[in-house]
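Title: [Solved] Multidrug export protein MepA 3D structure

Original question kept below for reference.
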Amino acid sequence: MQKKLLNENLFKLIFKYGVPSILTMWIFSLYTIVDGIFIGKFLGAKSLAAVNIVMPYVNFSFAIGIMVAVGSSTMIAIQLGSGEDKKALKSYSTSLQLFMVFSSILSLIGIIFPEKVVRILGANDIILEEATTYLFYLSFFTLFYMLSYGFESFVRIEGSPNYSLLCILGGAIMNIVLDYFLIVILDMGIKGAAIATGAAQMTTALMLGYYLLFKAKKLRYTFTKFNLKTVGTILYNGSSEFLTEMATGVVIMAFNINIMAIIGNDGISAFSVISYISTLVTMTMIGFSQGLQPIISFNYGAQSNKRVLKILKIGTVTVFSLGIFFFFIINMFANELVSIFIKENKELFILTKEAVIYYSFTYILMGINIIISSYFTAVEDAFISSILSVLRGLIFINILLFLLPGIFNTKGIWLSAPVNELIMLVVSSIFFIKSGYKKIVE
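Solution (posted by the thread starter after getting help):
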């Protein structure tokens, strides 16, 4: 595997790692999207709004999982690339123990204080009960939700991206089957949706865990005492991805608060549809960038900088092309996409369609910003990557959410995201030219 990362044709290598990673993220997206379809069709707009209120908490859990997975996998790839196999094993073992600690804390919070959490997230009395129920039952599966992403990253490092894809596909199929059985057949409502999603994540985590336990050749778990330096490096290296995903949760919460104040529950339902569509697009961009990371990290660790620069060029052109593709597809088939989730409520349908079209401009530039941030993580410059994540996901978007609705009313809510990506493209480009480019040309 190591020789291939250094010598194999880059287009072939990027295809080998990037495509399975994208497909993996698409299947991850199915967990959310399938829930949305079943909830929208069989439970209604109020339940859609309730699930969307809980999403920031889910994003927070996923953010911690990404932070540990990306932070440790970046370390492991660089350590393997430089021949430090023993250090790589310690990093791997430490990351597994971090998953256990963080997931236990989050599970307890969601199980013991579900109503308080959803109140903080913006739930009103109309959707409080369903939002509380969804969070309570989903919290029992937090460990598997985090491990499924972490294990997937480690299996890719082992050189088996196709197996990880198969495992996640198995979980997605399980989710569809359980959604139908628990929501439609047993009429378990929002509780059934939460259990179906959780059980599907558990299926994926167990399948991936089996590979790492019995089939892995490079990564073996042994109990390791927490070393503050190792833990700190893992969390620091993954901090950008943590902030990116965390910012997604904060943005959803900010959108929910603004929408609830200006439009009401129907607006939350409309935004939930945007969230389901955006999940697929965002996961495509993140999946591709995650597929590139081990290639960039390994070549950077081996000081093969010309290949790193070429990988970046290919990656940037690819994500920009994907962004254009998604923009046109969403605008051409807006009616069909919205009707998957909403049909009977005509006013809500019109509101949602308008929101989806305005919001779709976001996807054109999103991928380039994600690639640049991901590059800084891959070369262990988490500080700049974190700055970009904070600017993109916390500062600029919240300023725009404050300003634009006052100028354009409801349209200002939906336009804040694409304007944010445009501003960030300028900022990210400046950071790359001033700092990132120097790392691979000097």
